[in-house]
């Protein structure tokens, strides 16, 4: 549509108006820009309106002294614990609650949160064994032997599935502590068959077990200012709400077993050989991983099952949990790491069977070190003395220790996918030391507060490991398929952990993506990073809730983000902004009174492949040196192949200079005779408001970018318009060119000035290339060497 308009002032860069269409003001509001208000809990003396802990903030504490005996023949774990529980709350307590997580493995003691079931196509033995009505006791779950006070007097207690209430002999008042003892045992489950986070894995070829001892002792529930007792049943899905404390743990195991655990071992001199102790001391100052227990020693130990016993003693301070691992199969390597922000000396260590040696020996400990250093930059300095990765064919996290996968084929080869998956899961699980092991959110209620925040920081860490790392969660474009799902298959991020259907996208990917959009597109890196570090600092070693996070991010940045929390976290609407119409007008220059001088930058477009906004900014940031570039040992054939033919072209800067004058004479009118005005109308088809990001391409090949904040939708959440004035002809416009808003339909993100004809326009060819890029993946290409599968 071509019009003639009168223009009072002309800007060569961007138009003077960014107007909203308001056909019927007030009738189109979906409340997207209203404050969260009473949706969030009322601030109080415990939690402030700024998102910080209040002046009367408190939390209770539990200290543990535990002895454990691992019976390998019976696959039974026997334990005795003394718990000192500190009541720092203002409340009088007449009972306390503990968690008996191992009861989830029992057929008769579990929480029994059932799912609907249908007839399977075929039945296996395990399914047939669980068809008894009523269910028969499978022999798993916690067996309580004795529950007494510090003097040995029996205590009254009640077990409700996975929860245990102890009735106190007298009221526990503020500032008092209660000491009690529990003796217990349980049969260790085969986690490879029964599932779950803890148990044993049997290696039939050599007749050995690898034990991951987790959720293994009766643990105190959280009593808090915002909920009281968090005693929701453990179903296997929602993870844990735990209190901080100090631990002393003694583990009696077969003498040929190697143990890794939360905290520091206090008796290496008694449990290691002189040669192993010497290697450990050497590793403390080494910049490369040193094998403390060598591959040869591990292979030798596999052949002989010692009947002797050894006791390993570990201590950990200010942790919320304790986990450990034991096996005679373990190779163990370590190296020292210094955290620059607090000069903390940390031992980065890995434990792995020979089946994982080809991958873990090269990558694991270095990935551990890289993770704690990078997370320390974005959150708080890592405070603990140890960080460990254990190859156990799964992924799960605990303070200072985590369990991950990463085994090679029998011939020692591995695929590129296995390598990247292993590095990603190590980063993720080690990263959980920060969320929730230190910034101690309630996982039983809000999975996203640990999984989502951790997945986001994992993405930042993967980027600093390798700028080409194929991250699956974090970039906006990776969440599109999930956001396209029908509404009845979606639920808000703000959903209870037990009720989430699409758990991976909802608890991990969507919150991580939302934070990345905040950082890259809405707030900017400087504001976001400051606010994110503020949240981490405020709530380190405390119990944050969602409102504390939302409020802190706004308080520390000066950004009103309620519209974003409302849409991305409380809603299920997707982003789908469309270019509805472009109106072209030629200005009447006889009415022009003034011109202004402007400059602008035209960025050279990306060619041939798609890279998300984070990768580009990190690549341009000269202060970042990617971990894989610093260490030649981390580079393999795939790395060199991918980069061998690639060259990075620098962007060029362009500018236009015009003279200013009080009024335009005939000469000036000639100068601006090529001015064209464009009104672009947008429609919010998806419902979720987002910034409007445009890239203009002109007929001379130059480009220009413009971004309007999401506030452009505040008066009309359905429609918006922007007007621009250019001194050259516009060829086409692309909305969200870097796919940074998770727009689910990019087919309506283009407008072209090409005339319709029988031939396919250049712009149509461009769109077809874009579609091919989406079909082909992040860069539109398939690496032929990756398709080959393995790497030697």
From TrEMBL:
Domain Peptidase M1 membrane alanine aminopeptidase: 370-568
PANTHER family xrefs: PROTEASE M1 ZINC METALLOPROTEASE, PUROMYCIN-SENSITIVE AMINOPEPTIDASE-RELATED
UniProt xrefs under Pfam families: Peptidase_M1
Name this protein carries in UniProt: M1 family metallopeptidase
Matching SUPFAM superfamilies: Metalloproteases ('zincins'), catalytic domain
Domain of life: Bacteria
Residues forming coiled coils: none
